[in-house]
Structures are given as C-alpha cells and as structure tokens.
Write a structure and sequence with these properties.
By secondary structure, this protein is mainly alpha-helical. It contains 5 helices and 2 strands; from the N terminus they run αααααββ. It has one domain.
C-alpha cells in the first residue's frame, strides 16, 4: 500500500513538471513584458497571438500548455511602441517623416 502512494505521488509530480515545461511560448518565447501580461483597456488594440507557438501548443500538449501560455501571457506578441526620435517612412513616395 505504501508503494502505491509513493508511485501515485511520483506520477503526479512528473505530470506537473511535464506540464509546466511543455508550454512552448513560456519556454521558448523569451521574456514576457508588461504589455503581454495585462489585458488591453477599452479602446486599445487587441493583443496579437504568436501563431507558431499556438500551433506548437495545440500539436504537443493542448490540455496543459494552452492554459499555461495564455495565463502567463507568453502566447501574445509584445506590443512595440513607436519611438518618436526615429524617422518613419510615410506614404507611397517614401518621404521621411519626423
């Protein structure tokens, strides 16, 4: 009876560790920034999902990795804020706008 308890605990621990390490975006997606963690406020654009990470999550461990990646925000692309100091191309003529 004691070995059955030990075996059950070992299996549950292995499942927990495998589940935490199986989330593709959490493991391979890099550092999670603040824009990935928080929900967009009303009027802000929606967060974009990393399609490659989503497909990998669905194919490998969908029941475990999808909730982990969405809960941590690692599945979302980081939002880039345009730098006002950098010139950007404007229009079809390619005029530099400051």
């Amino acid at each position: 009876m004691k070995t059955v308890k030990k075996f059950t605990l070992l299996v549950l621990a292995a499942i927990t560790v495998a589940g935490s390490l199986s989330s593709c975006a959490t493991v391979f997606g890099g550092k999670v920034v603040e824009s990935q963690k928080r929900r967009p406020a009303q009027g802000e654009p929606r967060r974009e999902v990393k399609v490659g990470m989503l497909v990998a999550d669905i194919l490998l461990f969908p029941l475990v990795s999808l909730p982990v990646d969405f809960a941590t925000g690692a599945i979302y692309k980081p939002r880039t804020v345009p730098d006002p100091e950098k010139p950007t191309l404007s229009g079809a003529q390619g005029k530099v706008k400051k």
